[in-house]
Design a protein that fits this description.
The structure holds 2 protein chains of 2 kinds. By secondary structure, chain A is of the alpha+beta class. Chain A is built from 34 helices and 28 strands. In chain A, 48% of the residues are buried. Chain B has 10 helices and 15 strands. Chain B has a 6-stranded mixed β-sheet, with helices on both faces. Chain B has a 5-stranded mixed β-sheet with strand order 14-11-13-12-15. Chain B has a 4-stranded antiparallel β-sheet with strand order 2-1-4-5. Chain B is globular, with a radius of gyration of 22 Å. The chains are: A alpha+beta, B alpha/beta.
Chain lengths: 1206, 317
């Protein structure tokens, strides 16, 4: 091999690459992103983020490692596929091969020279990218983002580049280069990046359920050649805190080193393979198979001409004509399809999407439990994947299709035929739809297989037709038209790829930044939520306008494509003439009619967004509310509700409602009340007030109405505040899809008078309105230690007092209604159903829900479910009944006559538990996939039922830690109920699930003690629910069952009818009174409620030896976490929960209890009468810990680790 | 009638490929002769509607085909100089595809017609083979087949005999001759023999300009008595070149057989007058820019005066 010749090939190709626009567009994109990240317009987070205290530096090695991985995998790889994959193909199309390979240039010099050239270019790109990052991060000013920039450490940039970036570049340049050189088919060069993105983004990078064995996880980490899964699972999954990530280097283990080396080997190996094949086939030398020689001779034989015997040409009767548009298009399509069917691309991408569909069938809901798949869920769930894959396919195939005549050389003949240009383009587009249809069909097949295997849920093609037909297909049409337009404009495939990829990248960027809206969202990425109950009802108009707008744009692109398509090579001088203003204006006017439809639709849509509840108008109204009132009314006293009378008339077709009603407001403070604020929705119309029956004029301060009483309301006295208004919910369109918590739709209604004035006025000022994170959000309040002493305000402003409610609800007759209270009257007349409800026991909250339901009833319980979702109704009814029985026995008798649970459309996903009228979205509980060891439907219902007690009966205070008494108590209650009703296995499963969620979401740096948690920091919510539930349950076990229940009853009695509202400190004080050992109680309460501790156990040095008649197991137990808890260690054998398996070995265990402080370790010895298989810390799942799966050890020969620490 | 007026094509560079060509081509065969880079293919592509000119007009039977190129495609048969086919189709499939795109009809159906056409270009044996396996000559013949398909009013063939063996070339000549009886056939070539055999009329183009418009007979007649041939020793050749217009030099048994052109009959003694060939006329035109008695289309300028090397063909037998 000659170095000089190799270098010449290298030099020539490198110069060519550097001259290409694609290179500069990539650099521009990377520069834009580097700037965006350095100025805080984008973030790749590790550790805590943006709230108070230490910030996670974007210049740390951890942050830069993730950046390099993401950028090379998602951005670079597509440009690599074009540059590397097309390198040899380009030479072939330019027909330089004959001349090049007639020189002394060897195949090896050619192949390696070209490969090294493209590799060097992208290494240079990576270098420049990081250089730009250094410039933006450490040289240019950052303004507000300065806290996220750490000190400059060159190694932080170089190590990730060398460890993660370089091997990825070698891998993908090598593979794409080899694919292009081996197959000579342009489209196939995109297989690698598409496969990486699909498999990575939709599976490998995030799929890590609790039950996944560690060894499988490690295999998947190795298989993900980007390195992202490894870094997430090894370093990021369990938060190590901001300080750690800011200063530590990314520790490498054997797996990642081997993997990076494998990437390099694969990349170089692919090139070596190409070298061998290229050398073998360059000069056409290959051995003929046996028997083919005769065929080959026959093929080359040219029989002599028989010119004399042929009749004159005129005798053939040929006539020329012009093929019709349709006939021409079909002929073009036929030829294109012929090529597509013979192209291996189709047979690679279709299985890829099929596999991807099957892999994505695992959807999770509450408590990480699996959801049932329905046709609609699968259809919407596959939208993003299909959009990404099919749009990429359209980009590649459409470009190559339009380029094909030039590439093959037939252009001069082809374009000289009378076939109309429009017919030609239509035929090509039609042929390319075969590909799109194949992919969509294979996805549909995958979905149908999923549904068939799952069983339970009937097959229904209608959602697929609706979602894919009406939403996806226009996306494909738009993108096809756009790509065709680009190719016509540029007449250059590389230009088309570059602009197309840049368009997709920027679209993703704006989506990620939250800057996308309905108008610009051409691909409807993540906008659509499916509900079996209300399919596409919520955003119907924006969806329709969006599709009309973009289809109109597609027509425009199509017309421009036909006009610009360079069938006849354009003259440069005439181009200049055509760009003159007069000529441009004339051209613009000729296409102006095509702009009408998109202009109208786009304008209407933009107005809807602007005037919608997330638009500029609403934001301004909210800001005005905040600006005018925060200083004056934030802490103003407001009265409580003493009684409610509420007449609600609903018009779901218009999403409208009308209200007439009144509140009896009670001054439950110790001072007279002269005036008080009431929050309303600024979009309500015809709002009118009365006071004690007389018309009342209020001061309207940007939707905070100040009620001034003619005479101050004395303490303990009431007044009647009347109101009437009309409104809509939602009022207008969302910004980019999504749904509000409450809505009125033709198929489903859910409204609550809780915290926001959606249905009813809310007494007091709402501090959450008008606060925008990056504009006026303050740091969380720091509460004094004794904040809870004295009277505390309720956490839910309107729920501080008991009140009686009388509700009258009117809906279309086909809907059923559930409201707070008992149904006292129901009448159907003139197409309307009027229901009247009265509370049989005072309540603190009232709500209304409506739907088309079937009902299952039990003793004092009922489940109202959509007829399409009967799967878990029995289980949920059982849970309601169990909750009513056991919570009633343990805590306090259930005060209301009926406990109802109603289903609403799963547009937002949540559940709420107003008294007697629990509401679940359809994807909570109703579509949960329950298993014997994880009965999620029961779990979830148990949790929400517990809210009937906590906090409906004992309202919690507005202060830190108090919400643990709501959500934590609900989890704790669920633990008790699950064990009571379902047994130990399910309880253990529930506890493990909750613990695992806490561990994954835990923010080590920002986690506060339970008594300090107020839900304002990331990770708070999970800690409140999960750690709170665990801590309360461990406390209950610490106290003992009887003492614990006695404490709970005392707590309820203390706060049920009290003007004071409960804080966590109050709860602990009451529980302390029931502790046998108050010193031990104080220590327990201190570490679990007042400090931040959580143990983490490891086992090693395990030995098993015969000991008399039995065995002795010895091991060292270490607490690598924090906290001090007595914990059992068990030597076990057999299957604990055999589920009827006859051949399962019976369970046996021997136990020892050990108490270890933070960092302590101790040897334990456990005698057993049997030969144990494993050691398990906390076999009954009674102590909250981190990484429980690593606190097990397999015993036996060699005592190998069951779960090894990396 | 195909009429070209003031046709100009300037490529970015700038490169003036066609510099004001005027041409009338009636029904029948018309040759366009010129060296490589003269502008023949550019002119062909403009007429075929594949290239937009910088200025000028082209009409076919009175219709402006630059403004409406689709009108020429309806009546066009075109064999480009450089072309390819879809490699994944067989010869028959490719031809059928093009027949359909051209809107061709035939009493016996397109499949039968395709078979007939392939027979005429001696490709029947390879009809079912993928085009990617065709030799260069076979591709050329397939190109001819699609060009002659239908009933085109205008047939443009650009360097059609490249890649054809003598037998195939002869066959092609007969085909073209048959076609030229009732349609306009524009043959672009740098092979003088093609014009000599086929074209009753021809034009010569050089440097983007027409330098002559004549017939082969007139071109030869213009040189009658002015072409002389003789044997010359290699050492004497330079002096001969300096004194006379040498048009061809052939090496025969170590001596140069030289043909030279004399305006006033003053040939060296050893030289005798020989019948002029069309090649002689072409070479005189390239070198001197004009033929005596033939209308000059640009000011005659000696090649040497323009700094262009003398055109001569030296062949070693």
């Amino acid at each position: 091999m000659s170095g000089a010749r190799l270098f010449e090939i290298f030099r020539q190709d490198a110069l060519h690459s550097l001259r290409r626009p694609m290179f500069w567009v990539l650099m521009a994109l990377l520069a834009f992103m580097a700037w965006g990240i350095s100025t805080g317009h984008a973030a790749i987070g590790s550790g805590d983020a943006r709230v108070g205290g230490h910030k996670a530096w974007i210049t740390s090695e951890f942050a830069l490692a993730q950046l390099v991985i993401m950028m090379t995998t998602i951005i670079y790889v597509f440009f690599i596929s074009v540059a590397a994959g097309m390198s040899i193909i380009r030479d072939e199309e330019h027909r330089v091969g004959e001349i090049l390979h007639s020189t002394p240039l060897t195949p090896g010099e050619y192949v390696w020279g070209k490969y090294l050239s493209v590799l060097a270019v992208f290494v240079a790109v990576l270098g420049m990218h990081l250089g730009l990052a250094m410039l933006f991060n450490h040289v240019l000013p950052h303004g507000e983002n300065a806290d996220f920039i750490g000190p400059f450490v060159l190694a932080n940039y170089l190590r990730p580049a060398l460890v993660f970036g370089l091997p990825t570049l070698v891998l993908f340049t090598g593979i794409c280069f080899a694919i292009g050189g081996l197959t000579r088919k342009p489209v196939l060069v995109f297989v690698a990046p598409v496969a990486v993105l699909l498999v990575g983004a939709f599976f490998l990078w995030d799929w890590s359920p609790v039950w996944l064995p560690l060894w499988v996880n490690r295999i998947l980490q190795f298989a993900d050649l980007t390195g992202l899964r490894w870094i997430k699972e090894t370093w990021l999954l369990v938060d190590k805190g901001v300080d750690y990530y800011n200063h530590a280097t990314v520790g490498l283990d054997g797996l990642i080193v081997a993997q990076r080396l494998a990437c390099v080997a694969l990349g170089l190996g692919a090139v070596a393979l190409l070298h061998v094949r290229f050398a073998a086939t360059l000069r056409g030398a290959h051995a003929l198979p046996k028997g083919h020689a005769a065929q080959a001779r026959a093929a080359t034989a040219t029989p002599a001409a028989r010119l004399e015997s042929l009749p004159a040409l005129a005798a053939l009767g040929m006539r020329s004509g012009v093929p019709g548009f349709v006939a021409g298009a079909l002929e073009v399509a036929r030829a294109e399809i012929h090529g597509i069917l013979r192209h291996p691309g189709l047979y690679l991408f279709v299985p890829l999407i099929l596999l991807q569909t099957l892999a994505n069938e695992y959807n999770v809901g509450a408590f990480d439990t699996r959801l049932l798949n329905t046709s609609g869920i699968l259809a919407v769930g596959a939208m993003n994947t299909l959009t990404l894959l099919v749009c990429m396919m359209i980009l590649f195939y459409t470009t190559e299709s339009l380029q094909r005549e030039r590439s093959t050389g037939i252009g001069a003949i082809y374009f000289a035929t009378p076939l109309r240009t429009g017919a030609m383009l239509a035929g090509k587009a039609l042929a390319n739809t075969v590909l799109g249809v194949s992919i969509v069909a294979s996805c549909l097949a995958g979905c149908l297989v999923i549904l068939a295997v799952q069983g339970k849920v009937p097959l229904d093609l209608a959602p697929f037709a609706l979602v894919w037909g009406l939403l996806l297909v226009p996306t494909f049409l738009v993108w096809t038209a756009y790509v065709s337009f680009l190719q016509s404009l540029t007449s250059n495939r590389y230009g088309t790829y570059t602009i197309g990829l840049a368009t997709m990248t920027l679209s993703g960027w704006f989506q990620m930044r939250g800057k996308m809206n309905w108008v610009a969202n051409w691909d409807l990425w993540s906008t659509t939520r499916w509900s079996d109950i209300a399919p596409l009802e919520y955003d119907r108009m924006p969806l329709l306008l969006n599709r009309v707008f973009w289809l109109g744009a597609a027509v425009l692109f199509t017309v421009l494509t036909v006009r610009l398509f360079e069938r006849r090579e354009r003259d440069a001088t005439r181009i200049v003439h055509r760009l003159r203003p007069a000529a441009l204006l004339s051209s613009a006017l000729s296409i102006a009619p095509l702009l009408l439809v998109p202009a109208v639709a786009g304008t209407l849509l933009a107005l809807q967004v602007h005037e919608g509840y997330e638009g500029g108008v609403a934001r301004k109204l909210a800001r005005d509310y905040w600006k005018k009132n925060v200083e004056t009314w934030k802490n103003a006293r407001a009265p409580s509700l003493a009684a409610v009378d509420f007449d609600l008339e609903l018009d779901p077709a218009k999403r409208a409602f009308r209200v007439r009603g009144w509140y009896d407001v009670l001054n439950d403070t110790d001072r007279p009340l002269a005036r008080f604020p009431v929050s309303v929705n600024p979009e309500w119309k015809k709002l009118a007030w009365t006071l004690n029956g007389d018309s009342l004029a209020t001061e309207n301060r940007a939707a905070l109405h100040i009620v001034t009483l003619p005479r101050p309301l004395a303490p303990g006295t009431k007044a009647r505040l009347g109101f009437s208004y009309e409104g809509r919910q939602p009022d207008g369109a969302s910004k980019n899809g999504g749904a509000q918590m409450e809505f009125i739709l033709p198929s489903s209604i859910v409204l609550t008078a809780l915290e926001r004035p959606t249905m009813a006025p809310i007494l007091g000022y709402d501090p959450g309105v008008g606060v925008e994170e990056d504009k006026n959000q303050s740091d969380p309040r720091e509460w004094p230690e004794a904040w809870h002493q004295g009277l505390s305000r309720p956490a839910i402003a309107m729920a501080g007092n008991w009140f009686d409610a009388h509700l009258k609800v009117s809906v279309p007759a086909d809907l059923m209604v559930n409201a707070t209270g008992e149904l006292v009257r129901e009448e159907v007349r003139d197409g309307r159903r009027v229901t009247e409800w009265r509370t049989d026991h005072p309540v603190r909250i009232f709500n209304v829900v409506a739907g088309h339901w079937k009902v299952k009833r039990g003793d004092g319980v009922a489940v109202f479910y959509d007829p399409r979702h009967p799967y878990n109704a029995d289980e949920m009814l059982e849970a309601l009944a169990a909750a009513r029985t056991w919570y009633g026995e343990w805590f306090a008798p259930y005060p209301w006559k009926t406990l109802r649970l109603s289903e609403f459309a799963g547009l937002p996903t949540y559940a709420q538990a107003p008294p007697g009228n629990i509401t679940f979205s359809e994807n909570i509980g109703f579509l949960t996939q329950s298993k014997p060891d994880a009965n999620a439907a029961f779990w979830i219902t148990a949790h929400e039922s517990a809210h009937q007690w906590w906090p409906n009966l004992a309202m919690v205070a507005d202060g830190p830690g108090a919400v643990v008494l709501s959500e934590g108590m609900a989890h704790f209650s669920s633990i008790l109920l699950i064990e009571q009703a379902k047994g130990l296995e399910q309880r253990m499963g529930f506890c493990r699930s909750v613990e695992n969620r806490y561990g994954r979401a835990r923010r080590r740096d920002s986690e506060r003690a339970l008594v300090k948690m107020d839900g304002t920091l990331p990770g708070d919510s999970r800690a409140i629910y999960d750690k709170g539930g665990w801590a309360l349950w461990m406390l209950h076990r610490f106290l003992g069952r009887d003492a614990g229940l006695a404490g709970l009853r005392e707590y309820l009695a203390a706060f049920r009818d009290s003007r004071d509202n409960a804080a966590l400190e109050d709860y602990l004080a009451i529980m302390r009174r029931h502790a046998a050992d108050t010193t031990a109680f104080d220590a327990f309460a201190r570490q679990w409620f007042h400090e931040v501790v959580v143990p983490e156990y490891k086992l090693d040095d395990a030995t098993v030896e015969k000991h008399g008649e039995g065995w002795m197991v010895r091991a060292r137990v270490r607490n690598t976490g924090t906290g001090v808890m007595p914990v059992e260690v068990a030597a076990v054998r057999g299957v604990r929960f055999p589920h009827g398996k006859k051949d399962a070995e019976p369970w046996r265990d021997g136990r020892a209890t050990i108490t270890l402080g933070a960092g302590e370790s101790r040897e334990i010895a456990i005698p057993c009468a049997f030969e144990p298989e494993r050691l398990v810390v906390d076999p009954d799942v009674t102590v909250l810990m981190l990484e429980r799966q690593k606190a097990e050890l397999k015993l036996g020969r060699g005592a190998a680790m069951l779960a090894a620490k990396p | 009638m195909l009429s070209v007026r003031g046709l100009v094509k300037v490529y970015p560079g700038p490169v003036a490929a066609v510099q004001g060509v005027d041409l009338d081509v009636p029904v029948g065969m018309f040759g366009l002769l010129g060296p490589n880079g003269a502008g023949k293919t550019t002119l062909m592509r403009i007429v075929a509607g594949l290239l937009e000119p910088t200025s000028g007009s082209v009409t076919l039977d009175g219709e402006d085909i630059l403004a409406r190129p689709e009108r020429v495609r309806e009546r066009l048969g075109y064999l480009p100089q450089d072309f390819g086919f879809y490699p994944h189709l067989t010869g028959e499939q490719m031809l059928l595809h093009l027949l359909r795109l051209k809107g061709v009809t035939a009493p016996g159906g397109l499949k039968a017609l395709a078979g007939e056409l392939l027979e005429r270009v001696n490709l029947s044996f390879a009809a079912r083979r993928a085009v990617r396996s065709y030799s260069g000559g076979m591709r050329q013949r397939l190109g001819i087949a699609q060009a002659i398909a239908g009933n085109p009013r205008l047939l443009i063939v650009d360097e059609p005999t490249a890649g054809l063996d003598p037998e195939e070339r002869l066959r092609f000549y007969h085909l073209l001759a048959e076609l030229a009886e009732q349609r306009i056939v524009l043959l672009s070539t740098h092979i003088v023999d093609d014009v000599a055999v086929l074209c009753p009329r021809f034009a010569v183009i050089r440097g983007g300009r027409l330098v002559a418009r004549t017939t082969p007979r007139a071109a030869r007649a213009a040189l009658e008595g002015r072409i002389h041939e003789g044997l010359v020793a290699p050492a004497d050749l330079p002096a001969l070149r300096a004194a006379h217009h040498v048009t061809q030099v052939l090496l025969v048994e170590g001596r140069h057989r030289v043909r030279l052109y004399t305006l006033d009959g003053g040939a060296p003694a050893a030289f005798g007058a020989v019948p002029p060939s069309l090649e002689d006329a072409y070479l005189v035109l390239m070198r001197l820019g004009a033929l005596p008695g033939v209308e000059a289309l640009e000011p005659a300028a000696a090649s040497e005066a323009n700094g262009e090397p003398a055109v001569s063909a030296e062949v070693r037998a």
